[in-house]
Specification:
The structure is a homodimer. Chain A is mainly alpha-helical. The first copy, chain A, is about 60% helix and about 0% strand. Chain A is built from 12 helices and no strands. In chain A, α4 crosses α7, α5 packs antiparallel against α7 and α8 runs antiparallel to α12. At the A-B interface, α7, α8, α10 and α12 of A face α7, α8, α10 and α12 of B. The first copy, chain A, binds a DNA duplex through α3.
DNA sequence: AGGTGTTCCGAACACCGTTCGGGCTGCTGG
DNA sequence: CCAGCAGCCCGAACGGTGTTCGGAACACCT
C-alpha cells in the first residue's frame, strides 16, 4: 500500500529545495564504469554549454542526452521534467550572483548592480529567462537573491511593503528584457533574409507611414535611438527613481 | 524562371501590413461551397475562441483546423506561420484598444488606462502575451497603440526621448506581467496536487526558512501581501512617478 | 475552351517530451 | 556467501507538435 512510495523522481526535487546531500556513494551503470556516471551536476553543466552556444530553444532532452552520450530516458532518473531542468538552471545561475553588503548610502547602485548581473547572466545563456518566468519562488538559490535585494532596499530606508513589491517589479522586468533581447537576436539569426532590420531601414519605414501616425513620424529618431542596454538602464533608472520618491 | 513568383503566403502578410484589402471575390474550394469559405477572419476569431477558453498553449494548428472542420495544411494558405498567426491575434487585440484624446492635465491616468486595457485584453486570452513578446513592431495595429501612447506622454510635457523609451518600458512590463499571471494560473489548473500554494502556506514556508534569510522571514507578510493587480498598479505607478520626475 | 492561379486537404516528415519495460550493477540482510 | 533488491541506464515506443508535398477541385481571364 503506502509502503511502496514512488522511488525518487520528484523526491529528489524536494530534497534539492532543502539541503544538498553529498554524492550518495556513486553507483555505476551497466557501462562498466568507464563512462562518466551522469550526475545531476553533469546534466546541468552540459545543458549550460548547449544553451550558451545554441540558445535555450536548442536545449532538447534528446539534444542534451546526445551530448551526454546516452538516450533521452536516462535523464529522467535525475530530473523530473524539462520544466524542472529549467528551474535547476535558473537556480545555478542565481547562485553565481554576487550580493554586496548593504550600504545605506549606495543602495541605488547596489540594486542596479544586482539587476545588471542578472541581466548579463541571462543574456549569456540566450532564452533561458523563459525558464525564469515559470521558476517557482520556492527555490533556495533564487530566494537568496531576493533576500539580498530586500536587504539592500531596506538598508536604503525604503518602506518594507514598497521594498517587497519592488523586488517583484525589478526581477520581472529583468526577466522580460532578457527574454525579449534573446528572442530578437534569435530571430535575427534564423530569418532567411530580412524580417529584422537595421536602424536606417526602421527610419525609412517610419517615414513611409500614413499621416495618421504624426507623432511616430515626427519622433522616429527618438523611437529608434539607443542600444538595448541604454533602454535597460533607462527603465531601471525609472523604477529606482520612482522608489526613491516614496 | 523568375516569372514564377512565390504565390501568396507571406505576400499576404506583407499586404496585411499595408491596407487591408476587402474580400477579393470569395473563391470556393472543392467542397462545393456549402461550408464556410475559411477566411483569415474566420481563423482569427475561432483562434480567439480557443485561447479564451483553453489558453494559448491549447492553440494548436491541428486543434484550430479541427475547430474549422478541416485539416492542418489548409491553414497555411492563409497564414504563413504559427508565429504569424500569433502576430495576427496581437494585432486584432490591439485594434480594440481605445485611445483617449490626449489631455495634458490627465496624462497619468490616460497612460494608465491604456496599459490597463492592454493587461485586461491579455488576461482575457491567457498566455497570448507570449506572442506579444515576439510580435514585430512593424504591425500597423500595434503601432497605432504606440502612437496613442506617445501622443499622451508628449501632451504630458515629457521629453520626446524619455517618452519614446517609456513606451518600450511600459509595454514590455505589461506583456511580462500578463504572461506571468497566465503561467501561474495555468500551472494552478494543471498541477496534479499542490505545487502552487495559498498565502498561508507561503507564510509557513517562509517561517521555516534557515536563519540565513533574516529579511525574508521578518517581512514575510509584506512579501506575500496584495493581489496580482495590486502589484501591477504598484509597478505602473512606480514607472510613471519616475517619468513625472524628469 | 483552355490555361492559370488559388484554395482545399490527406498523407507524410522530422522533431518534441515523456513512459515503459527490461537489463544491469552494487549494496545489504539473512 | 549469496539471494534479493533498490536504483541507474537505456532502446523502443506513444502521442503530440509545426510544417511541407502533391494532387484534386474550383473560379476566373483570355
Amino acid at each position: 500500500m503506502m509502503g511502496g512510495m514512488s522511488p525518487t523522481p520528484r523526491q529528489r526535487r524536494a530534497a534539492r529545495l532543502g539541503i544538498d546531500t553529498g554524492p550518495p556513494a556513486a553507483r555505476r551503470g551497466p557501462s562498466g564504469g568507464t563512462k562518466k556516471p551522469i550526475t545531476v551536476e553533469a546534466i546541468i553543466s552540459t545543458a549550460f554549454g548547449i544553451v550558451e552556444h545554441e540558445g535555450y530553444e536548442a536545449l532538447t532532452m534528446r539534444r542534451l542526452a546526445t551530448a551526454l552520450e546516452t538516450g533521452p530516458s536516462s535523464l529522467y532518473a535525475h530530473v523530473v521534467n524539462k520544466e524542472d531542468l529549467g528551474e535547476l538552471l535558473i537556480g545555478r545561475l542565481c547562485a553565481d550572483i554576487e550580493l554586496p553588503e548593504p550600504d545605506p548610502d549606495r543602495w541605488r547602485e547596489q540594486i542596479t548592480s544586482v539587476c545588471t548581473q542578472l541581466r548579463d547572466q541571462y543574456l549569456r545563456y540566450p532564452g533561458i529567462s523563459r525558464a525564469a518566468f515559470a521558476a517557482a519562488p520556492t527555490n533556495l538559490d533564487t530566494m537568496r537573491v531576493s533576500e539580498g535585494m530586500l536587504a539592500i532596499l531596506l538598508a536604503g530606508g525604503l518602506d518594507p511593503q514598497t521594498a517587497a513589491w519592488a523586488i517583484d517589479s525589478l526581477t520581472l522586468y529583468v526577466n522580460a528584457y532578457s527574454l525579449e533581447v534573446a528572442l530578437v537576436s534569435h530571430r535575427l539569426s534564423h530569418s532567411d533574409d530580412d524580417w529584422v532590420v537595421g536602424r536606417d531601414e526602421m527610419l525609412r519605414r517610419f517615414a513611409a507611414l500614413p499621416d495618421s501616425f504624426p507623432q511616430t513620424k515626427r519622433y522616429a529618431a527618438e523611437l529608434t535611438a539607443g542600444t538595448s542596454h541604454d533602454r535597460f538602464d533607462f527603465t531601471l533608472g525609472l523604477m529606482i527613481d520612482g522608489l526613491a520618491g516614496r
